[in-house]
Design goal:
Elements lengths: L2 E4 L5 H10 L11 H16 L9 E8 L4 E9 L10 E11 L4 E11 L6 E8 L7 H16 L7 E5 L11 H5 L2 H4 L3 H10 L2 H5 L7 E2 L5 H5 L9 H9 L3 E6 L6 E6 L4 H4 L2 E7 L7 E6 L8 E6 L7 E3 L1 H7 L6 E6 L1
Parallel strand pairs: 6-7, 11-14
Antiparallel strand pairs: 1-2, 2-3, 3-6, 4-5, 4-9, 5-8, 7-10, 9-10, 11-15, 12-13, 12-15
């Protein structure tokens, strides 16, 4: 049974392995021991904080097999994007020009550097072992963050965003980066993303062009990358789209990948999850698969379980499920259909 829990400092060696295997573009998971150690300590501090509103906190979760202590994935929630420094994106909108004399009006799509998404809660750092992609474990890793938000809503903003990794080829080349960012940094796409993870997104973003970039002036391969998802990022996109997230007019400034957006009230696992009390039994007539979490803070746990659950009734869990969730008979839990 796989379990979601907050990251611990002892996870560092395995997180480095996950970082090495992660997609280029998942900049919040750098393959650097010192930066990962800082990220872990920052998360531990965030779970310790008694906060009444969303701030700079970062909540880092891992997907673990408790029997073997093997980590199969990780994912994060940044409570407030742009809290310490601007969170830069490219806004993709039409600029309209008109001539009264010629009776012509024409709209041209253009990309503008902005930090409009400051203040939103950001889902980031999603990575799972390839063997578990498009499985219940992948759903658990992504959606357990949403159940955590549901249990601790005051710690987060009223809207959530996430950036899906954009297209790059098997050699790590991004046509979007080559047509735009590379002219300002003279760096390969993979190296720019690596620096972004090690240093600062703002550090690179502030060197990007400050004036609108007219999309028709970009090479066609770069235009084709606007809003295009890397094939290995499709799973993460599909899970959140089913949750109620939608694309908007913002894209990643390095690879052109799409940004997803949703208000808390529109997110399925937040709006529709139910709470109930545990009834312990090893005789479960399972009728469906569910995500189950314990609503704790530092001791947060979430699993996938086959249950016979009905809203408004106690949640029957086996002893193994209770152990995985650190709950007992009568404890409160949160449930949502897988």
């Amino acid at each position: 049974m796989l379990v979601i829990r907050p990251v611990e400092l002892t996870d560092l060696p395995q997180l480095q392995r996950l970082a090495r295997d992660s997609l280029v573009g998942v900049t919040s998971l750098p393959d650097n021991a010192e930066r990962l150690r800082e990220r872990i300590l920052d998360s531990c501090s965030s779970f310790d904080q008694d906060v009444q509103t969303h701030g700079p906190e970062n909540y880092f979760f891992v997907l673990e097999d408790p029997a073997t202590r093997h980590l199969a994935g990780c994912a994060e929630i940044l409570a407030t994007a742009g809290f310490d420094e601007p969170f830069y994106s490219l806004r993709n909108r039409h600029f309209t020009s008109a001539s009264r004399e010629l009776n012509i009006e024409h709209g041209v799509p253009a990309l503008s550097l902005c930090h409009d998404l400051n203040g939103h809660t950001l889902l980031r750092g999603f990575h799972i072992d390839a063997a578990l992609a498009r499985s219940p474990a992948s759903e658990l890793l992504s959606r357990a963050r949403l159940l955590f938000i549901a249990a601790h809503a005051r710690r987060f903003a009223e809207a959530v965003i996430t950036e899906i990794v954009g297209y790059s080829d098997d050699q790590g080349h991004s046509p979007f980066w080559d047509a735009l960012g590379k002219h300002f940094f003279d760096l390969p796409y993979a190296e720019a993303e690596r620096l972004c993870g090690l240093e600062s997104r703002a550090f690179l973003a502030e060197l990007m062009p400050q004036y609108p970039i007219y999309v028709p002036m970009l090479p066609q391969p770069a235009q084709d990358c606007i809003g295009r998802i890397h094939p290995d990022g499709q799973d993460a996109f599909d899970i959140l789209e089913r949750e109620g997230f939608e694309t908007n007019s913002y894209i990643d400034l390095f690879d052109g990948g799409p940004t997803l957006h949703a208000r808390l009230t529109d997110i399925r696992s937040i709006a529709q999850s139910q709470t109930g009390t545990v009834t312990l039994s090893d005789a479960i007539d399972a009728r469906g698969s569910y995500l189950v979490s314990n609503d704790a803070l530092k001791g947060y746990r979430a699993i996938v379980a086959d249950l016979d659950y009905r809203a408004g009734h106690p949640v029957t869990l086996s002893a193994a499920m209770c152990a995985a969730l650190n709950v007992s008979d009568g404890s409160p839990v949160r449930v949502i259909a897988l």
